[in-house]
């Protein structure tokens, strides 16, 4: 099986000047339909080449104030109520360029699933952008989908061995 056989086609790409709010809207909807699968969006330059990826984790980093990561003291008396909501409103206006992951591992449409597994393990990522023959993004392959294929093979072999 090849990467292109399992990838999810990419319909939307972001630019570095898109806001977090716009990115969230793209992640939650696809032409007006709610989508459940995607938690990442590729970021491309003016020529359409991938320069980053924006994940749900990156969006959470946009909401998380930098001073909390520097605090080593117990913040037990700190008031957390409503903080996430307030910071989310503010983060919506920030551009994604500062929060996207820039060091992106990619695969090609004709790469094998084992190449994807190898790269996912080595880079500790859960999805990989898939590039076509021209180096443009055509899809994303997800760890969950590869896991499903692999476990189906495992279960089928066990059934055959027991029969």
In terms of topology, how is this protein built?
Blueprint lengths: L2 H4 L1 E2 L10 H9 E2 L2 E2 L5 E5 L5 E6 H8 L2 H5 L12 H9 L15 E2 L4 H11 L3 E5 L5 E6 H20 L1
Parallel strand pairs: 6-7
Antiparallel strand pairs: 1-8, 2-3, 4-5, 7-8
CATH superfamily: CBS-domain
- How many extended strands? 8
Radius of gyration: 19 Å
Q: Tell me the domain tally.
A: 1
Largest sheet strand order: 1-8-7-6
Provide the CATH architecture: Roll
Oligomer: single chain
**CATH fold-level label:** CBS-domain
Task: Detail the poorly predicted runs.
Answer: 31-35
Integer average pLDDT: 84
Taking the sheet with the most strands, its summary is: 4 strands, mixed
CATH top level label: Alpha Beta
Shape: globular
Topology as a string of helices (H) and strands (E): HEHEEEEHHHEHEEH
Q: How large a portion of the residues is in β-strands, by DSSP E?
A: 15-25%
Number of helices: 7
End-to-end distance: 26 Å
Structural class: alpha+beta
Could you explain the architecture of this structure?
This protein has seven helices and eight strands. The protein has helices at residues 3-6, 20-28, 56-63, 66-70, 83-91, 113-123, 143-162; strands at 8-9, 29-30, 33-34, 40-44, 50-55, 107-108, 127-131, 137-142. It has 163 residues and is an alpha+beta fold. It starts with a helix and ends with a helix.
């Amino acid at each position: 099986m090849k990467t292109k056989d399992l990838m999810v086609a990419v319909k939307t790409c972001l630019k570095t000047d898109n806001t977090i709010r716009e990115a969230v809207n793209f992640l939650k909807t696809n032409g007006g339909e709610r989508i459940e699968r995607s938690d990442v969006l590729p970021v491309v330059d003016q020529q359409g080449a991938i320069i980053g990826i924006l994940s749900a984790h990156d969006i959470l980093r946009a909401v998380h104030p930098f001073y909390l990561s520097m605090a080593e003291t117990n913040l037990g008396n700190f008031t957390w109520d409503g903080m996430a909501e307030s910071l989310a409103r503010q983060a919506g206006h920030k551009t994604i360029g500062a929060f996207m992951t820039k060091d992106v591992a990619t695969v090609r449409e004709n790469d094998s699933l084992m190449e994807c597994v190898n790269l996912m393990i080595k880079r500790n990522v859960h999805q990989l952008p898939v590039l076509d023959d021209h180096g443009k993004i055509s899809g994303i392959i997800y760890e969950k989908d590869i896991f499903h294929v692999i476990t189906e093979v495992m279960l089928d072999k066990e059934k055959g061995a027991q029969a």
